[in-house]
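User: structure tokens for this one?
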Amino acid sequence: MNDNHLQEPIDEGLEKARRMVEEEEMGLRHAVGWQRFIVPIVAFCWSMFQLSLSSWLLLDSTYVRSIHLAFALFLIYVSFPTLKRKVNIPGLRWMSATDRIPTVDLVIAVVAALIALYIAIDYEGIANRVGMPNTRDMIIGGLLVLILWEATRRVVGPALAVIGIVFTLYSFFGPYMPDFLSFKGVSLTRYIGQISLTTEGIYGVPIYVSAKIVFLYVLFGALLERAGAGKFFIDLAMSLLGRYKGGPAKAAVLSSGLTGLISGSSIANVVTTGTFTIPMMKKVGYPPKKAAAIEVAVSTNGQLMPPVMGAAAFIIAEYVNLPYLEVCKAAAIPAFASYVALFFLTHIEASKLGMRGLPKAELPVFFQVLFGGLHYLLPIFYLLYELIVPRHSPDMAAFRATMVLLVIMLFQHVARLRKEERLPFGEGLKLGVVDIFEGMVAGARNMVSVAVATAAAGVVVGVVTMGLGGLVTDIIDTLSMGNLYMMLGIVAIASLILGMGLPTTANYIVMASLTAPALVTLAGDSGFVVPLIAAHLFCFYFGILADDTPPVGLAAYAASAIARSEPIPTGIQGFLYDIRTAALPFMFIFNTDILLVGIDSFPLAIFIFVMTCFGTCSFAAATQGWFIAKNRFHETLLLFLVCAIMFRPDFWGHLIGLENHYICYLAGVALLVVIYLMQLPRARKHAAAIAATATGGAA
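Assistant:
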């Protein structure tokens, strides 16, 4: 086997993409001397604390939230400089220092951690003073808000901090706004008391879920990546699909989907899988822009995949008061149908360009890869077993799966070295311990952005609960003029705009707290029932799509750096590929069968999944102008009709008076077969022309 395809293509573009991920998730600083030990030690302690919570350490939830935030704030202030751009003004150079931790930031980090711990340190006193904070409470509570906003600005950019400031100002100046926007307002005492000193603001549901559940899944993913599972997923996908038409792109879809099971970051997903798949896509004939755009689309969609869903699945479960498995059940068909459509879309692009797959000699051998990496699948299957069979809580399932993974990491080098090189047992054990330590450090560092984003989003949620919720409903109703379609469009556009500057989880929290209840209420007023889970998933989907939406889409910038393409055109192309994902939320709002709401029959669920896949693939074929050959105008219209039938069989069944609307699916399938037969002669002619061109070129 030729292993050239496995060699990491070290070039300027790849290094640029990796720096983007590091800046986005782990900070810019690389301290030297004794300071270089601060971040790893604190990060490791944070991971140990979180693992202890799921095993032997019993703490009140308020203590858990405050300690979780304290770790995050400390790591942010020692990892991220005040300014990213170089400052050359004497006396202010420390603000952009990346080779050391300035004393100012070190002091702020300690103070920030202590302020975050205040609610735990004076727990009983604060509980006795609910609604009547003293001067010390007011000062420390106010400082917590300011320190949190600055930490948010450093790690996720200014957008979320600005939104928090706007909502804060609105809560104070609401009485002075025009009648359309007027709000009774709150006092400073009530604001500080609720936002900083209760579990209805910064220490609310989002950060509790972050501390209780999300951390364990992010840690599990970081450990799995450190163990080598990411490379295993890529090799497995290439060995299965690399030889087929457009094989590397199809492998990118599969490997990114597998990585998305455990990863909560589309940018990290791009670099993990795109490092290998983008160069190979270019090798078989994909233009750089399209190779990068495909990777952006599949990596962005990785956040749709249960069980992690970019860390949002657990927060959705808390907000809609549903068991976690019910959220995964609702998200399953849209997520997998989206990936099936993207798989088909890569086939369309390969067919247009007349591509072939990679030679078999350049691909890894499937069974060698599979048997060589079975141990990576064991903790994943064990996690799914824990969630589905005994139905343990998500945090307990993640903890137990992590313990299995730690044992594997500890001994995998021992087994490999003794088999290949006959090295001593102790040497392999030492490598395993190093992997575990570095994986736990990486997991904690990956969590800082999630922890601070959930805390900052809690400010918005806290202000909304002070009485803004009803006002937001009235504003949306006025803007949409009571029209449900306009209302959905407004929410979708707002989610996309906010998502350009917010992490996915924070964007979901903000939009769901503002608009999900309004969607349900106003839809009910229009005589249409929208389940709460559908409204929340609607906000979540459009928040994810912002990762590849120009001009900001960071995933597009990372992929374009690897592919050496222009970021904006890459983002536009990626968004065009993701249009099929943008259509899904509108569909499951009106057809809740796609979310399996009220459906417990497994055969019926499989049937709905297959029909939804036909619908998403038809939509992809219509928007890309190609099914099995280039579409004619009437064929594109027919494909859109197939899509409409597959997504809304209830509408068509009601229209023609059918009691069992599932029969309409058969009409959609029949119409798809007709389109296939119409295009088949042209597809054969196109294939023959490509083969003749290839033969002529070889001659």
